[in-house]
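Take a look at this chain, tokens included, and explain the fold to me:
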Amino acid sequence: MLVPKHGVFYTLDKYGNQVLRNLKEENKNFNHEGFYLGHFDSYNYLYYENFECYHNEAQGSDYFRTGCKIEEGMKVLDLGANIGLFALSAIQKGALKVYCFEPIRATYQCLVANCSIFDDTRIQPYNFGISDRTGSMKFGIPKDWTHNGGGQMSSLTN
């Protein structure tokens, strides 16, 4: 079973620069109150959600708690893959392949770098988003890159 090597992942700092962090080490004292008070950033939250959230009957990320089921041999689409934490948790749950789509270049570059850390070809990153039509869309990028949402589409009608 694939595991993150010592909790080390590439993330973005608040300016959009790629940084190598040990999220497992940083999360030793993680709690929701600390997150909402700004003591932890969104990457800490993503790590916690995908690898350490097993209290009060929670079974990992929001996806798994609300009905997402990943079984041995499944192929998974990760739309808005960010840096790849959900993809890695899907592999750990038995996914045969995870196709990751991340349209924001800086976040995508972290995803690619993390795929090399994971050293697993079952995670396939793609630098574009998925839509019901062909075209381009402008994304509004937050000034603080540590917000894991990455960006928002400026218009759904373009």
Notes: The chain is about 30% helix and 20% strand. The beta strands are 8-12, 18-22, 75-79, 97-101, 123-126, 139-140, 152-153.
